[in-house]
Amino acid sequence: MDQQSTYNLTRHFKDILLIIAHFTFVASHAFISSSFASTDFNFLPAHQSTYSIEKFGTYIGNMHNELTHQGEQLSYISTTKAVGFAALFVKNDFIETSILNWPGNDSKKTPQQQSYHLFRGEKHKKNQNISFDWRDNKTLKLSGSYKNRKYNLSSTQPVWGRQLLPLLMSHKLLSENPNSTHTFYITDKGNLQKYTYTQEGTENIYLSGKMYPTLKFKIKKEASESWSYTWLSSKHYYLPLKIEQYKDGELNVNMQMTHFNQVALETTNANIQLEDDEYE
User: How far out from the chain centre does Cα 161 lie?
Assistant: First the structure.
């Protein structure tokens, strides 16, 4: 591949993180209902996962996720790193951090998101900071900053930061079978955005010679020409095993799980046993 072709691929890498977050993990709104009440919250255990990222068929980076439990606090950190030629154009890792509070680790109570941060570099204008105020049971209040602008939002619908979507999805699928179609709301860049996801069926996915039964979902953002397919594996607590993002009818971004392992934790309600998996 010549230098110009490589540049054309890597110059968009900074937007790929946003594409991934918006279109790949949004199936999780199976958890979000029209009220703040919920059924038992079967939160997945502390774990680490890694995904390879391809843009137009070229390998350009990895995303590493880590969920930790520390008493009543849950922390979820995602780090996206450019590799190869892409690293010449993208110097900084993208780091997303979500903090939740889970009173008493009680399955009768829903963990509440406290904050979301996206770090793209020192003083980068697209860094994001969002705080969630859950004190009012009727209205969720959000305050944040993006592109050096502060903003305030409110919603009578449950709203979550985009990074938590795979965990919420896992919760719902571990708890019960979801309906085939849902709409949901996330907050990003100072906006509230509506998505719809629909279960397309079941498929077997092969990774390094291993076959995994999965649920396939299609995800669509309102008033957008882009959509995604995501394949969710029960063996991996219904986290995405494979993700494909399409734009203008063409495959744009492809992600595939390359590593997953459950780590030691203090409390978990999940009841699925899992060995470490790594795919070379």
Answer: 9
- What is the per-residue pLDDT across 117-133, written as a single tens digit (0 to 9) for each? 999 998 899 999 999 99
Cα distance between residue 70 and residue 72, in whole Å: 6
Contact 61, 133 (CB under 8 A): no
The partner residues of 125 in beta bridges, in order of sequence, read none
Q: Beta partners for 74?
A: 69, 100
At 134, is the secondary structure helix, strand, or coil?
Answer: coil
Q: What is the pTM of this model?
A: 0.81
Distance CA 200, CA 131 (A): 35
Planar angle of CA 233, 235, 236, nearest 5 degrees: 70
* Cβ density class 34-65: b for 16+ within 10 Å, e for less: eebebeebbbbbbbbbbbbbbbeeeebbbbbb
For 216, the 3-state DSSP assignment is strand
Phi first, then psi, for residue 19 (nearest 5°) are -60, -45
- Residue 113 has which token pair? 């998101």
